[in-house]
Amino acid sequence: MRMVESRATLTVSYIVLGIGAFIALFPIALLVLNALKPAAQIVQSPLSLPNPIRWENFTNAWTHAKFSKTFVNSLLLSGTTIVLVCTTCSLSAYVLARKKVASWKIWTFYLLATTTAPIQLYIFPLYFGFAKLGLINNVFGVALIYTALYSPFAVMLLRTYFIAVPKELEEAALIDGATSWQVFSKVMLPIVSPGILTVALIIGLNSWNEFLIATTFLQKADKVTAVIGFYLLSGQYSSDWGEIMAAALIIVVPVVVLFVAMQKRFIEGMAGGSVKG
Amino acid sequence: MHRLYLVPTLIINFVIVLVPALLTVVLAFCNWDGISTPTFSGLDNFRALLADSVFWSALTNNIIWTGIFLVVPIAMGLLAASMLLIVRRGSNFFQVVYFLPVVIATVITARVWQGMIYSPVTGVFGMLDRMGLPVANPLAQPSTALFGVATVDLWHWWGFLCVIFFAALRQVPQEQIEAARIEGASYGQMMRYVLLPAIRPTIMLMMIMTVIWSFLAFDFVYILTQGGPAFSSEVLSTLAYRHAFYDLNVGQAAAAALVISLFGLVGTFFYVRLQTQEGEQ
């Protein structure tokens, strides 16, 4: 928008936005600040600058939250979920976007409805079923649950990318004698790959951060995710807030770095399903 | 042939979501501890639920929660988004900052607020208290616990709405805004007559999602207060969870889950209607 605003309007706007930024950043600043302090200094004041900086918080947090195990679990879980969601959902999103099956309306409708299905509606039988099958404490079992949980969102988002591809491209490939599988894998997939990357980022973030399912289905201390490792550390094993904040920082930093580096994709993807032009 | 493309998604969905969801419906009418064979018990679970005062306070809390989230974060999001539209310069920076709380894991957000802000020993509240400003830990009082938890969720949530509203506002036709400005519209008039009507579908969608999500609120309540003190911050999802995994009364948990789903279903109906309408345009 090319609006020439008066100085006063601009000043007021920046003040409001600044207050918003302060609200968003204040707890994050506390997190960073206190991760560097010994517990005694935090009790004196959570707002004071660390003096001296206590780097041991990070090594203690790393061992006590069993991060060398739980980070691997988190990576395995997020990675498996990303692969499962991206493969299965690009297939179904393509078929639904191009109306390749007569029942496309029913399935689109069904998946839309399951986007909003409460976890509580299926978690209880699922838990006892998983327990019977010995799938508790199995990250791949949890990856399967995440896949079901995030698929409807992924299908809906990918569908919009497939719809945007001009039909002529597909038709041209078919005339050239490509099989329908070749049309999908050689023509469509490369074009929608930005969409797949966006889905992968958002699904990865969600699986990395997820709490309810992870805490229910992963119970052994060496099978949990990094986030649950942090939950156990802060709830049971430690009351040293310097160490707890250091553990939090270790989990948050990779996420924030990735988010800032890929902000356009994250925001576009998250808003993609919600903004109608 | 193309039908096969749908199979993996649907199989996973049926096994993880549909079949267990149907089982939940059945279990709501059964007595089951999770181990022995379930026995049919008719409407007993629902009767027990309705007779339980905690269920009613949990339901009330969910309704209060919905009310808070329909107003506060949406208002904050709209205000900030419209300011982003005005300033233009730096809007990307503010957008990223506002979105940061959204990408931080709920457990971490909860612990930062609990230990660094609310805590009377290690938090900012405790420090203010020692300086003579009488502020108490809201999570420790039955009258304020729910609001203490809601504040944390608000902090985590409003930036998401701001970013979505900003994306919608940027698509409002330039001419409409220019015309209103030439007419000398104030900020309030601009919002009321131009911007808000233009992004009405997005606001509606976010309000429907807010209602659905409000009845699913779990993480922050469970981590911060476990529904306490004295069940004062209990919501339906933590109540159901407690019944299933602490009391091993799965039947009653399933009944509570059905109540949650009922509210979700109303929201889902409007959500699907809105989404398919948009899709057909």
UniProtKB/TrEMBL annotation, chain A:
Its subcellular locations are: Cell membrane
Q: By its UniProt entry, which InterPro entries does this protein fall under?
A: MetI-like, MetI-like_sf
Transmembrane as UniProt keyword: yes
Cellular component terms per the entry's GO annotation: plasma membrane
Instruction: Report the protein name in the record.
Output: Carbohydrate ABC transporter permease
Q: Which PROSITE patterns match?
A: ABC_TM1 (PS50928)
The signal peptide annotation in the UniProt record is: none
Query: Topology versus the membrane, per the UniProt entry?
Result: Multi-pass membrane protein
Q: Which residues form the ABC transmembrane type-1 domain?
A: 71-262
Chain segments annotated as transmembrane = 12-36, 75-97, 109-128, 140-162, 183-205, 241-261
GO terms of biological process kind: transmembrane transport
- Family from the record: Belongs to the binding-protein-dependent transport system permease family.
SUPFAM superfamilies for this protein: MetI-like
Pfam family of the protein (one): BPD_transp_1
Question: Which of UniProt's keywords are assigned here?
Answer: Cell membrane, Membrane, Transmembrane, Transmembrane helix, Transport
UniProt keyword annotation of Cell membrane present: yes
Automatic annotation (TrEMBL), chain B:
The entry's localization annotation reads: Cell membrane
One Pfam family hit: BPD_transp_1
Every copy of the ABC transmembrane type-1 domain together lies at 59-271
Q: Does the keyword Transmembrane helix apply?
A: yes
According to the UniProt entry, the coiled-coil residues are none
Give a yes or no for keyword Transmembrane in this entry: yes
Which UniProt keywords are present, listed alphabetically?
Answer: Cell membrane, Membrane, Transmembrane, Transmembrane helix, Transport
- Name the InterPro entries for this protein: ABC_transporter_permease (IPR051393), MetI-like (IPR000515), MetI-like_sf (IPR035906)
One GO location term (cellular component): plasma membrane
Topological category with respect to the lipid bilayer: Multi-pass membrane protein
- Name any Gene Ontology BP term: transmembrane transport
Q: Where are the transmembrane segments?
A: 7-29, 63-86, 93-113, 155-172, 193-216, 253-272
Q: Which family does it belong to?
A: Belongs to the binding-protein-dependent transport system permease family.
Q: Which PANTHER family match?
A: ABC TRANSPORTER PERMEASE PROTEIN, INNER MEMBRANE ABC TRANSPORTER PERMEASE PROTEIN YCJO
Protein name (record):
Sugar ABC transporter permease
